[in-house]
Fold:
Amino acid sequence: MSTKSNESMSLASPNAQDISTKKKVALAIGFTGLFILVLALANVTLPSQGLFLTLSLALITAGIVLYSRDEYLTKLEGIKNDETWFKSISSRGVWGWVLGVVLTLFYIVLYFFAELLGLGTDGASNTGLIALFDPLSQLLSGRNASQWFVYGALYTVAIVAFGYKFMLKYRHNRYQQLRTGSVMFFQMAFAFLIPEFMYRLNSDVPYNDIKNMWPLNYYAFDEWRVDQFINSGTIGMAFLIFGILSIFVVSPILTYKYGKRWYCSWVCGCGGLAETAGDAFRNLSSKKMSAWKFERWLIHTVLVFSVVMTIGVIYTYLGYDANKYWFNKDNFLLFIGGFLTVVFTVIMIFKRNELGKDARYGAIGYIVVIAALIGMHYTGTTNEIFYLPASDMRAAYGFYIGSIFSGVIGTGFYPILGNRAWCRFGCPMAAVLGFQQRMFSKFRITTNGGQCISCGNCSNSCEMGIDVRAYAQKGENIVRSSCVGCGVCSAVCPRGVLKLENGALEGRINPTDVLLGNDVDLMELMNNK
Amino acid sequence: MKHIVIIGNGIAGVSAARHIRKLSDNKITIISAETDHFFSRTALMYIYMGHMKYEHTKPYEDYFWEKNRIDLKRAFIKQVITTDKVLITGEGEKISYDSLILATGSKPNKFGWPGQDLKGVQGLYSKQDLDKLEENAPNNEVCNRAVIVGGGLIGIEMAEMLRVRNIPVTFLVRENSFWNGVLPAGESAMINDHIRDHHIDLRLGTNLKEIISDENGRAKAVVIAETGEELPCNVVGLTAGVAPNIAFLKDSGIELGRGIKVNRFLETNVKDVYAIGDCAEQHKPIGMRRPIEAVWYTGRMMGETLAQTICGNRIEYKPGHWFNSAKFLDIEYQTYGWVFGKQQEYEQQFHWKHTDNTKCITVSTHKETGKFLGINTFGIRMRHKVFDNWLTEERTTDYVIKHLPEANFDPEFYKQFENQIITAYSKQVQTA
Structure:
């Protein structure tokens, strides 16, 4: 293909065109900031940790800000996707792979070898990179940093700095600006600052990012957490109750009204990172039909795994301390079984025709398995529901899904699989919200009559791998479980075809054979069969 | 089971094939000399700009064709022998058909300029043209300057493309304002400014005299007719419109004009031979449409319609209300109904422009009846369905302006200008 000549494979010049001097200066500033982190990691003794930490984070931020300003403010407002597929970093070139490997290694160390980052174990004080963050942690919560504090701080810097970049990129688009401002705020306040302040106020309450709801937060109902909440008085109980309400009441209502975007691309931290730092990689998601099929099986399997694991965990601790909780293990299981049966029955009665064949088989298969396991519990004598000790399941989930999938693959593989691989293939929360969005929500992406020219910009920029064009060129609204409502397809459309809307349920899904603009009789003939 | 052969794998031919497959079990073969698979021609520019790769411009995955039993053949058809119902390829292979659909599209116009066939001189229509541009203008070291001749939609796209690679562009436009044969003066003036804001050297009212060759037969400069000025350049883009691609049909017995002559059923003068898309020419224009319409969606609609006829439900091609869209650099344009560049005598035009000079609308009204005739909109997205209904219901412009907010299709949270427009309109009505 002729365009090959433009894909830069060179390490020395990763872009098709030379970058400006200002950008080179910005990169130098940013990498100096990163270099301080590397020095700390290598245990180089820095004269003042507080000063150097501040310097490092400020330089990183300044580098990103300066780079973005030169990139976007020197040009007129508009779509800025020039050379995306020529740049090494955003087209799985050498730099893309290098970044992928570095990020992956970082996550592996973070999750499994935190002592390499300098985490002090058995009461020893922190060293290295983690010690560098001690002053900030002391300032916020009055305790020393952990690897999670370091991660949280860097994560927040990434969302805020790259969020600024994204806002400049879309400075003509208020939807993009508002939603980016929203994820920046939720990360900074809810995920980072408030939990630290809460610790200062009441150190008995466990770390709690109240926007991070179960099942994305798979440890939400672990025994130690529930116990800590119950034991720490009103505030703890409020958190616990809010956690339950947010998944069972708040999220269905908001998803009904606005689609899952209210969470995935306005609130969620994983989504926040994907939309800001990950924006350059959105084009890399696979749009193939086979990828979609794989996605449907994988994400729902993770959801079932998380549900089964959580039931097992709760069931177990309800078992050995029956007096402490309102529920006992038997009525808990009955309640869960009843709840799942009701959801399943309602869907099968009212929404059967909206499920694909594989979805129907999958749903039936999973409900049969869960029902059988619950049934076996009542007929058998084992304390180990699901035939596995819940603690093993919990550990396996934490390792394979919580760490490997969401962290190492989900973020480490940004430059390879695209910025939403976790959200698309693995996130059980996205599965729940997506199910609600597909089955009963006012949200859809409307297509504009016959204006589509099948150019493919929409599909190319869909981070969730939806082949948006396949719908737009048929004049069919896009109603897909996976759509996070980022609105970029609508932004990049050169013909004004796509609009994110909340509207009436009737006519939301509107497959057509002949588009608006053709002979009315032909439209009648073809579309009202 | 008939064998239906379609020459051309663009939107017209592919739409016909898809709908014939939905309606019948006929054997379908699509022949193309351009590419193995259907791709979106309108997206060629995005490949050069790096927004997408060629594979992303394919609307259907490669397995689609076999799954739907649509045979694809890569060949150039040199001759059509309608008496034997046989096609002859460039390699001399014979392909027989029962029904033949000609959907061969267009080729760039050349108006006999001296030097128009030199190396480095090219149009931008086909995949091959894109490959050629990649070769002629990979960067601003190989191509120090490009000159584009012809101020239409392809010309401005080509200018945008070359600017992405920092290649200086001079844009020669014959008219005294960009695309003013189609756009009313205020809109055309706004686009002139926008082109210049993108650092494109726009020369209005300027014609090409000749293209000068270097010693290797490559273009090295153009000469401007009006001033005699010689502009050094390495690439010359010829974008003065397109014409039907029908040279291979010269001796076929199929009636030709500028395009392939068809009746309202898209039938040519030869039985079982049909023509659709850019290459088809209506004997009589349909409504106010041109006899040849080189527009994406008309190709699709002709394909949808012809599929019915081929499968036994013979129906006329009856396009609905005129609409179209385009994008001029950063400014989106949509049109519904008819607004003319040169105001017709029955027509009254209302023009509103935002002070930032990137958004405007023009609404056309029938002078006597007050009936709404059409709208051009720049920088504000409007809803096709709503305008289609209003045109069918024959609403007045007063009604349309009053209900304009219902037609807005901009993304959520966008600033809306309908109130400004309504105010401006009522002021104009009072002073008129």
Notes: Residues 490 and 498 of chain A are 5 Å apart (CA to CA). The longest helix of chain A spans residues 289-320. Confidence is low (pLDDT under 50) at residues 1-6 of chain A.
